[in-house]
Design goal:
This protein is an all-alpha fold. The chain has a single domain (37-65, 100-317), classed as MetI-like fold (Orthogonal Bundle). Helices cover 71% and strands 1% of the residues. It contains 12 helices and 2 strands. The chain has helices at residues 2-15, 21-31, 33-57, 101-137, 139-153, 157-176, 180-211, 215-222, 227-235, 240-264, 275-282, 290-317, and strands at residues 71-72, 77-78. A two-stranded antiparallel sheet has the order 1-2. Strand 1 (71-72) and strand 2 (77-78) form a beta hairpin. Helix 11 (275-282) runs antiparallel to helix 12 (290-317). The longest helix has 37 residues, at 101-137. The chain is elongated, with a radius of gyration of 25 Å. It starts with a helix and ends in an 8-residue tail after the last helix.
Amino acid sequence: MAETTTGAARDGAVAIKGRTPWQITKGRLTRDKITMVALGVAVFFALIAAIAPLLTAWKIIDPYSTHPELVGGLGSLPLGNFGGVSWSHLMGVEPGIGRDIFSRVISGLTTSLTVAVSAALFSVALGTVVGIIAGTAGGWVDWLLSRITEFVLSFPQTLMLIALSTIVIDLVKTALGVSRTPASMLFMILVMGFFGWPNFARIIRGQVLSLREREFVEAARSLGAGRWRIYFKELLPHLWAPILVYGTLIMPQNIATEAALGFLGVGIQAPTPSFGSILNDSVHYASVDPAYFIFPGVTLFLVVLSFNLLGDGLRDALDPKADRQ
């Protein structure tokens, strides 16, 4: 009888297997159906944005060519039902000049995601460096970096983007010898990235304050590890969770900011397609040609919503205090 019990205990011990943090996170994500759907939608939009330049080069989509034969009548509205929707023009055509809305939305997705991703990477990189240094160094270094962070936080991002747009874009055009579109994109990346890092730096600093006294950091110090090794070899690998979550959550904010600036006429402007410039043009036809406003608006809504839901799901999945049942 004792041998049987011992064998059963042994079998039970073998059946119990430990799980890595990645396996735990993966299990939580796969159980969250909303997050998985959001992940699929976000990946779909990202792939479309990545291949859009190739589709334009291969003439599969054409965001710039006009089709005056497809518009006519009062106000040069699109011919046909619901803004000229057809198999050739899945979202219809623009009033007045007849450009394909589907092609412009796809190309605008590339523009918006390029700006949003680049600005997010800038914010995450700068915020990570400042947060790690402030949280580890302490003393006057922490005090100085914290005051700089609070100083940058005191500036409203959208207002600064509008106020600095004309001056900075002209300076970039002159300094780099580029046209307005790349200058506008670089301007928005730099300004959104610069004003986006302080919140992340404070998050990383709080995480580092709880990590810097841990045994592995003390062991690295005792072995003579330098300051930069402790920053980026010991602490940084333990910060990937907040980095991933914050980077995902700041993406929809950057996309919406780029669209808002284009709508206000201080961001990327026509004929270069972007969500902001398309919505700025379409709002004038919202009552007579609702398709021109609905299709780009719904696409922008789905992009922002998918990244928001993905960020929320990742935050819950990576939370060590989350329910594991």
